[in-house]
Design a protein that fits this description.
Layout: E1 3-5, H1 15-21, E2 30-32, H2 40-46, H3 51-63, H4 69-81, E3 91-95, E4 98-102, H5 112-130, E5 134-139, H6 143-152, E6 158-165, H7 171-178, E7 185-191, H8 194-206, E8 216-218, H9 225-241, E9 249-254, H10 259-269, E10 274-281, H11 286-293, H12 317-324, H13 329-338, H14 348-357, E11 358-362, H15 365-379, H16 385-397, E12 405-409, H17 417-422, E13 445-448, H18 451-463
Parallel strand pairs: 4-12, 5-6, 5-8, 6-7, 7-13, 9-10, 9-12, 10-11
Antiparallel strand pairs: 1-2, 3-4
Bound molecules: pyridoxal-5'-phosphate (PLP).
Pyridoxal-5'-phosphate (PLP) is lined by residues 110, 112, 143, 222, 254-261, 308-309, 386, 410-411.
Length: 465
């Protein structure tokens, strides 16, 4: 299978190239040239599979021979072996047609483990074959950093440099990063905010000439298609549990960058019977504004109780735009690059296409807290603040009570103490594998808010290898 860029100016790429680069050279995002389609018979056959077996069946459609089946199977089994629930992504019934799928049984307690556990292994496989070393450089406001570090700490061909804003991530989030040990792991606290960190990363990617000979940078944020691919699996996992029992299922997805919900959209396009896909946003609601009013534009960033969805622009939305514009890459480029100057709008027909696939709702902090309380009172389930936006959006947008509505529970509530306390609850204990988090030794370098300082630091560490 070949992958093409949403901007239309890069040659088609192989799965291996897509994994190793992330962004296409023309600045676009890679999407499969042709999406694999799964028949109803195949779906029925998949119903008896374990999570890892199902993941193998779905993922091999995208890998398409780039990795021998046996090696791929091992990578996938290893990726999900450390998840604490035997079902990997367990479904929990809330009430009536409302369900949650718990996606926080991985090592860092957020859904990002599903993709990053696998991505680390994919990178190592291809890099060993090529005998090539890469440096992962990423900026994180919290969950991505720890999931990437946990996913790649065993990679022999990868050095990691993860930037976070000094004193501006939660203590659990910081400790989840700074206590990961390994000679290839470097945590950098930048004396600035998240945007400063991202700016440094962007500039380093744009000019990589500072790296030692033979090195290249790899992106591990959700622009890397391998991350989306791994996330498609749990939509099938949930949908298959209702196959034959309900005509379809619906999903409510807490999203900022449109990564997680785009994976659901692909599952639907591949043939999984999905009725509704609901975009749940917090006050940073560029996606909701587009779906509800056909206006896509940047506003200022608002810090919220669900910080992993605090974004101004949803980078993965470009992948859906490519479909909405019926693969007109010029129109995609115009839309995305025009965003810095003015509000973007699309034709009635195009907007209708978007609304045919997605409903949306924006949830503020007060409603997030109220939903955490209501849900707990009604069902005993303690939702993290991101999950709570999903549960609220599901209540507001659900159009058919005979269809199971599954909210993706994207993080464990212990990760977001501030919101849980604000909702009036004691913060739950961390799971056993993290119980000693607060007594583990931390390793982190504080650097000034400067591209040169980060480059110098990276060079020193790479040269000494
Ligand atoms: C990253 C994250 C999200 C948002 O994911 P998208 O890729 O923007 O869809 C939601 N909840 C949690 C807990 C996260 O870590």
């Amino acid at each position: 299978m070949k992958y093409i860029s949403t901007r239309g100016q890069s040659p088609a790429a192989s799965f291996e190239e897509v994994v190793l680069t992330g962004l296409a050279p023309d600045g676009g995002l890679y999407v499969p040239q042709q999406l694999p389609v799964v028949s109803l018979q195949q779906l029925a056959d998949w119903q008896k599979l374990s999570y890892s077996e199902l993941a193998f069946e779905v993922i091999r459609l995208f890998v398409d021979g780039a990795i021998p089946d046996a090696a791929l199977k091992t990578m996938i089994n290893d990726s999900y072996a450390s998840f604490t629930d035997p079902d990997v992504a367990p479904l929990l019934h809330l009430h009536d047609n409302q369900w949650v799928m718990e996606l926080y049984c991985g090592p860092t307690l957020a859904f990002k483990d599903f993709a990053l556990q696998l991505l680390g292994r994919l990178l190592d496989y291809f890099l060993e074959k090529r005998q090539q070393h890469v440096a992962i450089l990423g900026a994180t406001s919290g969950d991505t950093g720890s999931a990437a570090l946990e996913g790649c700490k065993h990679c022999r061909f990868v050095d990691m440099f993860i930037l976070h804003p000094h004193n501006r991530v939660s203590e659990v989030q910081r400790r989840q990063m700074t206590t990961v040990t390994g000679s290839n792991i470097n945590n950098i606290a930048v004396e600035g905010n998240f945007d400063d960190c991202q700016e440094i990363v962007k500039k380093a990617f744009a000019d990589q000439s500072f790296l030692p000979q033979g090195y290249q940078l790899v992106a591990v944020n959700s622009i890397n298609f391998a991350r989306i691919m791994a996330q498609i699996v749990y939509y099938f996992h949930a949908g298959l549990k209702f196959l034959g029992k309900a005509p379809a299922v619906s999903f409510s997805v807490p999203t900022g960058n449109f990564g997680d919900i785009y994976a659901g959209y692909l599952a639907k396009q591949m043939g999984l019977p999905i009725r509704q896909l609901i975009i749940a946003t917090n006050k940073n609601d560029i996606l909701h504004r587009f779906i509800s009013s056909n206006r896509y534009h940047k506003t200022s960033l608002e810090p919220t109780l669900s910080p992993s969805m605090d974004i101004m622009v949803s980078s993965n939305f470009e992948r859906f735009l490519f479909d909405m514009f019926q693969h007109d890459a010029k129109r995609v480029t115009q839309f995305v690059t025009g965003l810095n100057q003015e509000v973007q709008q699309v034709s009635e027909a195009q907007w209708a296409r978007a609304r045919a696939h997605f409903a949306s709702y924006s949830v503020d902090d007060a409603a997030t807290c109220a939903t955490i309380r209501d849900t707990h009172q009604r069902t005993g389930y303690l939702a993290d603040p991101h999950t709570a936006t999903g549960i609220k959006a599901a209540q507001m947008c659900d159009t058919d009570s005979s269809i199971p509505m599954i909210t993706l529970a994207t993080a464990h509530p212990a990760k977001f103490a501030a919101a849980i306390e604000q909702a009036g609850f004691a913060v739950p204990a961390l799971p056993p594998h993290m119980a000693d988090l607060f007594s583990r030794e931390e390793r982190c370098s504080v650097l000034p808010n400067s591209l040169d300082a980060v480059k110098q630091f990276m060079l020193q560490h790479l040269a000494s290898k």
